[in-house]
Structures are given as structure tokens and as C-alpha cells.
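It is worth pausing here to work through a concrete case rather than discussing structure prediction in the abstract. The textbook approach is simple: state the sequence, then state the predicted structure, then interpret. We follow exactly that order.
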Amino acid sequence: MEQKITPSWTKGLIISLLLIVYGLFLYFTGQQQNKTLGMLQLVILVAGMIVACIGYSKQMNGNLTFGNLFAHGFKATATVIVIMSLYTILATKLLFPDMIDQAMNQARVEMEKKGTLSDEQITQGIALGRKFFVPFAIGGIILSFGIIGAIGSLIGAGVAKKNPNYNPLEQ
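Step two, the predicted structure:
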């Protein structure tokens, strides 16, 4: 009996759901501005990519190259980026519109702490940040999750069992 291979998009969907649940946990506990806890999302992403690559290698009995494993992990990363971008739009526009207000209030507090900007400059900066919040958030997701997901895929491809006798022409 042939073993069923889990597609990379399924693994990306599972990792995305974990990230969304963790993000909701942070939101409902009022910790979404906590940078240390926010970094745990990136740890979840790296761990997910490593597990995805190792699982793929096991499903294929190690008959893969480093490139095959990395590609599988990065496809899962691409799925995570798409799902998290869509979730960000949905969350900020429909589910939790106060999320933007909370982020802007935090930004105002940080700017006032520094004391280098006038009240007018802070108000202009907050208005601009509010206007472009979603595009900046999506850009941040694409950039940070893309880089961190690639690193996780590289690590996963490096530690997963590989068979050097793999011949792609045999398939």
C-alpha cells in the first residue's frame, strides 16, 4: 500500500491556524503589543517548517534531495503568507477594527516618550500610520514570514533524512 503524501499547502494551512489561534490568544489577553510574545509567532513558523520538511522526508522514505525538501517547506511558507495576509485584512477591517486604534495609541505613547516630535508631527504620523496600516502589515508579513519561513525551510531541509541515491528520472 502506497503512503499518502501530505501536500505542502495542507501543512501551511495547519501552521497558519496555529498562528491565528496564538494571535487571538495575544489579542484577547491584551498582549498583542508585547514584542517578546510576538516573536513567538516566528518561532512557531520556524518550528512548523522544520516539522513539515522532516515529515515530508519520512513520507517519501528519504528519497529526496535538499532542494526538494526546501521547495516543499517554502511552498508551505507561501501558503502561510497568503493565509495570514488574508486573515490580517479580515481581522483589521471586520473582526477587530479596534486593533488599529490600539496599535496607533501605542505608537503615540512611544513617540511621546521619545520627546523628539511635536504634537502636530505625532498627530500627522498617527494619521498616516492609520491610513496605511493594512498595507504595511501585509508587507511586514510578506517580508518577515518569507525570510523566517525560508530559514525554517533551510533548517528543515538540512536536518531531514535524505537519500543521496535519489534519481528523479525513475519516477
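Step three, interpretation. Residues 34 and 110 are 13 Å apart (CA to CA). The chain is about 80% helix and 0% strand.
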